[in-house]
Specification:
The protein is of the alpha+beta class and about 170 residues long. It contains four helices and ten strands. The protein starts with a strand and ends in a 34-residue tail after the last strand.
Length: about 170
């Protein structure tokens, strides 16, 4: 078994030629949120993944094996609930309400401009339908938000390290 104990977030800094040569693994969300697991890559090699506790692997990340080889991670499609605003009875704001209610229940949720995704749950599906949202079961990759306070992993937003707030004004600490 080939051990992998390093993760390069999004393959950052790697030349595209190296990524083209890399083997790959397709992993669902349940596996990608574990820090220790076994899998088999596209070359048929048995891999043992040993990452720091709390590490979350995202599609596009790259594992580095003990022999220096690279393994590109793909988010494997899985059954999820795709939630959209009802075009007849609702408005896009309904998605904001749904995200609020799901967040209050600490449900892992993928946020998109025109839809939300959650893992299958018939009770939540009925709650969302009662809110006049459309809920469909689909087979797609699932990349839920990490949370505002998540350590490590991905930061999909932008930085304000330049000392300016969202309005372009200088900011300071109190």
């Amino acid at each position: 078994m080939l051990a992998c104990s390093k993760l390069i977030v999004g393959g950052k800094g790697l030349a595209s030629v190296l990524l083209k040569r890399a083997s790959s693994v397709s992993l669902d969300w349940d596996v990608r949120q574990k820090s220790r697991f076994e899998t088999v890559d596209s070359l048929g090699r048995s891999l043992g993944v040993f990452l720091s506790r709390g590490t979350v692997i995202r599609g596009g990340d790259v594992l580095v094996a003990e022999d220096g080889s690279l393994i590109q991670v793909n988010a494997e499609p899985q059954e999820v609930l795709r939630i959209t605003a009802c075009t007849i009875h609702g408005s896009p704001f309904d998605l904001t309400r749904a995200a609020y209610h799901l967040g209050n229940r600490h449900v892992p949720i993928e946020l998109n401009p025109d839809h939300l995704k959650i893992e299958p749950d018939h009770v939540l599906a009925e709650m969302l339908r009662a809110m006049h949202l459309t809920v469909n079961t689909v087979h797609e990759a699932f990349e839920p938000e990490g949370g505002a306070y998540s350590s490590g992993g991905h930061h999909h937003g932008h930085s304000h390290a330049n000392g300016h707030d969202h309005d372009g004004h200088a900011s300071h600490e109190h």
